[in-house]
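ok so i was messing around last nite and threw this chain in just to see what happens. nothing serious, just curious
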Amino acid sequence: MSVGGIGPALSKTLDAETRDRITSALNEPGKKSTIRIVMQPNARAPVDTLTFYKQMGLEDVTVWTDPPNDNAEYYIGTKKHFADNGLNVYGMGNGSVHNQDKIVLNLPGRDEKVEEYKKHLRNLGKAGITYTTYAHMGNGIWDSPNETTRGGASARAFNLNGENWGRWNRNKYYPPLSHGREYTEEELWENWTYFIRQVAPVAEENNVRIGVHPDDPPIPKLAGVPRLFSHFNGYKKALEIANSPNVGLCLCVGSWMEGGDTVGKDSVGMIEHFGKQKKIFKVHFRNVDKPIPHFVETFVDDGYTDMYKIMKALKKVKFDGVLFPDHVPNMIGGHGWAFTVGYVKALRDRVEAEANGK
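result:
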């Protein structure tokens, strides 16, 4: 769920003649696909970065913002910035209303955060941006010290039985009790109900879909805080409570793989169930070496899951959202994003050709 980017080696300034030639080429009609791949740049990414995306054949992006850039003018300007460079803003998140313990745990300031989230949805509506990712983790994403994957590339890791901590934005959370006491599932379900039943009508009014990201890692409780989106049944219950066509999934298949046999349905099972309901709005497409209690994120072609099967399942349910190749390990020269996007595009084109009998 990180706000991705590219290495400095891929963002060198182009001379004016080369830029004009590339810009002209980018306007030529290309092959369309129902499954689109996105990158996740800074909301004011430079033209060279956007040209790089277009050279990879991408047409959409998702972006993030934070206060003070959480106003309608900024959202509208962001969409225009990308449109002027041939890219569509599929979705926009706001880190200030994402993974908020005030909302998840009913801490002082909850109502102010709920109102801030409603404002975010209204800003999206004014800008004509129709999707946002939301995560409901009370003590954030959990990490351990980085480890290495193929070729010595540095990558995120998590070890339940070793050093670990939670984090979101500038906040860090530590065991044994991140918020001073044990919370119950009943409390968290009450808090989810309070939140989602206020914001879902606003999402509907503004034509915005909310994709809920899995807990990362999907462990039922960490540091005294239950994690509702760590099991198939949790998602099913949460969507039933929301009872809204505008509330669905941002399915991070990498996070789901981290859970292994503990999450009720594997990634393909989640796609089959929620994809048939058209409840999957975005997919984070990544891989890990093995499930909890100890995993390391890997290159997309180097984990324990066959990503072809994931792509095939998406095609089978006629998924028409976007894929983001999340959490790419650090490759020398900053080329990890290009490698990963190329691999994902090849998988997508293969399953689409198969679906068309080719």
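not much to say yet. Residues 185-205 form the longest helix (21 residues).
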